[in-house]
Design goal:
Layout (H helix, E strand, L loop, with lengths): L3 H16 L11 H11 L3 H19 L5 H18 L5 H26 L7 H39 L7 H7 L1
Length: 178
């Protein structure tokens, strides 16, 4: 049987991944937010990467696999790593900053893959810059979506931790359970 905290974290990420399957504005998805959330909240660092990336893969199986997925997955693995840095610094400012940074990470890493494998851009610094400039219209929605879902996941879990002490991590949870 899963511990309550672990069960809630996994459930929240599974629900977030399922939201990707519903109609939504372009690039407004919970994927980066769930990678950031997983990195920041799973006690086991392996699960911090495995659960969000597995949920992404499961949703990709429903939506369809695509070429050069490794760049998308690398960007979300980096975002989960960014979440690890939040573990001891969780406050509204750092969480919002990390949420915005996750969109930038995706923007740069995924567009690097596009530039590298596409014949649309020359394989020069100027070609990479042109690829990034062409992707700017998609960045706005990504930032907005990442900030929205980051606030939803982190804020929702903070409310759950406040309401249910068994979900808390660390000495507070141990004292509440005693």
């Amino acid at each position: 049987m899963l511990r309550p905290r672990l069960a809630v974290l996994v459930s929240m990420i599974v629900v977030a991944a399922a939201l990707r399957l519903l109609p939504h504005p372009a690039n407004v998805t919970p994927i980066a937010a769930m990678a950031l959330f997983g990195g920041a909240n799973f006690a086991d660092k392996r699960l911090a990467f495995l659960v969000p990336l597995s949920a992404l893969f499961a949703s990709d199986l429903f939506l369809g696999l695509y070429s050069h997925m490794e760049y998308v997955y690398a960007s979300f693995a980096l975002t989960a790593g960014l979440g690890l840095l939040l573990r001891t610094r969780k406050n509204a400012f750092t969480i919002a900053g990390a949420g915005a940074a996750s969109a930038i990470i995706f923007f740069v890493v995924a567009d690097f893959g596009t530039w590298l494998y596409s014949s649309l851009y020359p394989k020069t610094v100027a070609g990479f810059e042109a690829c990034l400039v062409a992707a700017i219209p998609f960045l706005r929605n990504m930032v907005l979506g990442d900030l929205f879902y980051t606030a939803l996941l982190f804020g929702g879990f903070a409310l759950l931790e406040h309401s249910f002490p068994a979900l808390r991590d660390g000495p507070v949870a141990e004292a509440a359970a005693a």
